Protein backbone atom coordinates (compact mmCIF):
# COMPACT_ATOMS: atom_id res chain seq x y z
CA UNK A 1 0.00 0.00 0.00
CA UNK A 2 1.03 3.58 -0.44
CA UNK A 3 2.31 3.22 -4.01
CA UNK A 4 -0.56 5.21 -5.47
CA UNK A 5 -2.74 8.21 -4.83
CA UNK A 6 -6.04 8.81 -6.57
CA UNK A 7 -8.34 11.72 -7.24
CA UNK A 8 -11.76 11.52 -8.83
CA UNK A 9 -13.63 13.84 -11.13
CA UNK A 10 -17.34 13.10 -11.46
CA UNK A 11 -18.98 14.27 -14.65
CA UNK A 12 -22.74 13.90 -14.77
CA UNK A 13 -25.31 14.49 -17.46
CA UNK A 14 -24.06 16.06 -20.67
CA UNK A 15 -20.67 16.68 -19.04
CA UNK A 16 -20.16 12.91 -19.24
CA UNK A 17 -19.31 13.50 -22.90
CA UNK A 18 -16.10 15.13 -21.67
CA UNK A 19 -14.69 11.98 -20.03
CA UNK A 20 -12.52 10.95 -23.00
CA UNK A 21 -11.01 14.38 -23.78
CA UNK A 22 -10.47 15.18 -20.08
CA UNK A 23 -8.73 11.83 -19.52
CA UNK A 24 -6.56 12.35 -22.61
CA UNK A 25 -5.53 15.81 -21.44
CA UNK A 26 -4.71 14.57 -17.94
CA UNK A 27 -2.52 11.81 -19.42
CA UNK A 28 -0.75 14.29 -21.73
CA UNK A 29 -0.20 16.77 -18.90
CA UNK A 30 0.89 14.41 -16.11
CA UNK A 31 2.45 11.63 -18.23
CA UNK A 32 1.88 8.85 -15.66
CA UNK A 33 4.44 6.08 -16.02
CA UNK A 34 1.75 3.46 -16.61
CA UNK A 35 0.52 5.36 -19.67
CA UNK A 36 3.86 6.37 -21.12
CA UNK A 37 6.80 4.22 -19.97
CA UNK A 38 5.59 1.04 -18.25
CA UNK A 39 3.82 -1.39 -20.55
CA UNK A 40 0.85 -3.52 -19.56
CA UNK A 41 -1.30 -1.50 -17.15
CA UNK A 42 -4.52 -2.07 -19.11
CA UNK A 43 -3.90 -5.70 -20.00
CA UNK A 44 -6.62 -8.29 -19.47
CA UNK A 45 -6.55 -12.05 -19.01
CA UNK A 46 -5.49 -13.40 -22.42
CA UNK A 47 -7.71 -16.46 -22.03
CA UNK A 48 -7.26 -20.19 -22.39
CA UNK A 49 -4.54 -21.36 -24.71
CA UNK A 50 -2.69 -18.03 -24.68
CA UNK A 51 -0.74 -18.22 -21.44
CA UNK A 52 2.54 -18.67 -23.30
CA UNK A 53 2.82 -14.88 -23.38
CA UNK A 54 5.20 -12.94 -21.14
CA UNK A 55 4.16 -10.97 -18.08
CA UNK A 56 3.98 -7.26 -18.77
CA UNK A 57 6.28 -4.73 -17.17
CA UNK A 58 3.32 -3.63 -15.05
CA UNK A 59 2.83 -7.17 -13.72
CA UNK A 60 6.52 -7.46 -12.87
CA UNK A 61 6.41 -4.16 -10.93
CA UNK A 62 3.00 -4.76 -9.34
CA UNK A 63 2.28 -8.47 -8.99
CA UNK A 64 -1.19 -9.44 -7.93
CA UNK A 65 -3.27 -10.16 -11.00
CA UNK A 66 -3.86 -13.88 -10.53
CA UNK A 67 -4.11 -14.57 -14.25
CA UNK A 68 -0.68 -13.00 -14.85
CA UNK A 69 0.90 -15.66 -12.66
CA UNK A 70 -0.08 -18.24 -15.32
CA UNK A 71 1.91 -16.50 -18.06
CA UNK A 72 4.95 -18.54 -19.04
CA UNK A 73 6.73 -16.42 -21.68
CA UNK A 74 10.08 -14.68 -21.23
CA UNK A 75 9.20 -11.71 -19.04
CA UNK A 76 11.23 -8.51 -18.81
CA UNK A 77 13.71 -8.26 -15.94
CA UNK A 78 12.80 -6.04 -13.00
CA UNK A 79 16.19 -4.31 -13.14
CA UNK A 80 15.73 -3.31 -16.78
CA UNK A 81 12.24 -1.92 -16.07
CA UNK A 82 13.54 0.10 -13.13
CA UNK A 83 16.45 1.40 -15.22
CA UNK A 84 14.02 2.55 -17.90
CA UNK A 85 11.93 4.36 -15.27
CA UNK A 86 15.00 6.00 -13.72
CA UNK A 87 16.15 7.20 -17.13
CA UNK A 88 12.74 8.73 -17.82
CA UNK A 89 12.66 10.41 -14.41
CA UNK A 90 16.04 12.06 -15.13
CA UNK A 91 14.85 13.41 -18.47
What can you see in these coordinates?
With 91 residues, the protein is mostly helical. The protein has one domain (14-90). It is built from 4 helices and no strands. It has helices at residues 19-30, 33-36, 57-61, 78-90. The mean pLDDT is 91.
Task: Write out key terms for the chains shown.
91 residues; mainly alpha; 4 helices; 37% helix
Q: How would you briefly describe this protein structure?
A:
With 91 residues, this protein is mainly α. It is 37% helix and 0% strand.
Topology:
Layout: H1 19-30, H2 33-36, H3 57-61, H4 78-90
Care to count the β-strands?
0
Rg, rounded, reads 16 Å
Overall mean confidence score, pLDDT: 91
* Tally of DSSP helical segments: 4
Overall form: globular
The tally of structural domains comes to 1
Low-confidence stretches: none
Helical proportion, percent range: 25-40%
Kindly, what is the distance between the CA atoms of the first and last residues, rounded to a whole number of angstroms? 27 Å
Instruction: Name the helix and strand elements from N-terminus to C-terminus, one letter apiece.
Output: HHHH
Question: How would a textbook summarize the main sheet?
Answer: none
Q: Structural class per helix/strand content?
A: mainly alpha
**Proportion of β residues?**
under 5%
